[in-house]
Amino acid sequence: MGNLNGFNRSDAPVDEFSPLAAGTYETVITESSMVPYKSGNGEMLKVVYEVISENGKGRKIFDNMNLFHPTSEKAKQISWASMGKILDAVGKLSVDDSSDLHNIPMTVDVEIDGQYNRIKRWHAATTAGKASPQPAPAATPAAPSPEKSGDKAPWE
Fold first, then answer.
1. Which parts of the chain register pLDDT below 70?
2. pTM above 0.90, yes or no
3. Which of 14, 119, 122, 134 has an alpha carbon within 20 to 30 A of 2's alpha carbon?
């Protein structure tokens, strides 16, 4: 038998591990790492999002992405599609390392899946409730025509 020294329920903290309410949250990725599967056959990207909006500030959302799944092409496709949406949300076309995604605000739509949160959609960070514009791909300026400019073409 263990002496609990008059343990009082009111002294116990609120459960911080309950899922966030379904909804939309401003977040940043604060941690990410490639982790081997328990089977030793492949690895996944573990991502930790931190809520930065007032509602839920400081709470964390955990996500595992099977970017390099050795046996399930479907799992890879789902994770690659999700990674593409993350890149869109943070305004990047490519990254070399998952840390390149850290601390860039984005908006996520969260739902409850059993006792856990699941990110359903990723969006660019919002300002005053409206989505900020996505950066458009840089347009390549047309080279001046040699006939019009009298100059040589840029590749000459």
1. 1, 14-16, 127-156
2. no
3. 14
